Amino acid sequence: MPKTDLKALSKQGLESFIRESGLPAFRTKQLLHWIYEKRAQSIDGITEFSKELRENFSKAAYISSLAILKRLTSEDGTEKFLFGLEDGESIESVLIPDKDRLTLCISSQVGCAMKCRFCLTGKMTLRRNLKAHEIADQIISAGRLIEPRKITNIVFMGMGEPLANFDEVVESLRRITGLLKISKRRITISTSGIAPKILELGGIGVPRVNLAISLNATTDEVRDRLMPVNKKYPLSSLLGACRRFPLEPGRRITFEYVLLEGVNDTMDDAKRLAKMLRDLPCKVNLIPFNQYEGSEFRRPPDETIARFQNILVDKHITAFVRKSKGQDILAACGQLKAGYC
Ligand code: SAH
Ligand code: SF4
User: Fold this and answer.
1) Which of 28, 133, 173, 195 would suit a FRET pair with 297, their CA atoms being 20 to 30 Å apart?
2) What is the pLDDT of residues 184-204, one digit of tens each?
3) For the residues of 231-268, what is the DSSP string, one character each?
4) Which residues line ligand 1 (CB under 6 A)?
């Protein structure tokens, strides 16, 4: 019989496994503590268990962990981790230090099927969905590697479209909030705009995390060209879902807007954007395009970026220009490809 991976089990799954193994219920609590807080990588590492228990337990179970294949550090302190999965696939996670925050940007899929034209991850297409424990394990494994520093925030902005892997992402949220004890206010899911799934994310029983939308255009014509998802869920349906998303008090939706020279960076775009968002509690993150080898787009000049931001601010829309971090190690937005293409 194949051994059971304890990390792949939900809290309830682990409870059943312990019961079926004929062990007392308090062992579940001990295991959860050792796997999620002490980051044990093997049953043998659980020193709270007697040698005999460890040996017996190891016959039926094991604790999987991501293999660290590569770790790169940028001049600005950003770090990129290349993690190997059990089936030989690999994914990237990026650690971004910023003042008192330490944000881990995690992946939800190996590759991505959404084919946004400006994004390098989109060019590698989808290889497979990640399981909930592979998503959560990026936090455990990176946390282990950076000890004694502590990860404070999580963004689902690495490889993949989180809402295209909905069930596993939601289960990973349960583990991240419930077992890794990271507050849902410090977690953000970013989506290219799968409108019905945005509504499901706001549904009952789903941890109410922050929502970010990769908007990137102000007309359906341009968005259709940049992001094929728009053909299925055009701006009206996307913004409709955003309006219906149940925000916690004081929370706002983040709209990400990658600025591409001559494509979506005109002053008319800025005005349309302000108009589109005026009735939504939101903020805008302007992301100047990060170039990569062979990219067909360019980053607009700084003056254009500043003018775009000023128009939004004049129209009372909170707007920031996101400084790209980790460009020298290809860790910036849209540059993750885990060595695939
Ligand atoms: N798939 C999700 C999560 C990935 S987040 C999503 O698209 O929202 C990746 C973010 O980086 C998105 O906001 C995307 O618009 C942005 N992005 C992609 N390629 C980029 C590039 N080359 N330069 C700057 N931002 C980019
Ligand atoms: Fe996928 Fe997001 Fe890249 Fe689009 S921007 S291809 S949805 S990862």
Assistant:
1) 195
2) 999 999 999 999 999 999 999
3) HHS-HHHHHHHHHHS-PPTT--EEEEEEE-TTTT-SHH
4) 118-119, 157, 161, 190-192, 214, 216, 256, 258, 287, 289-290, 333-334
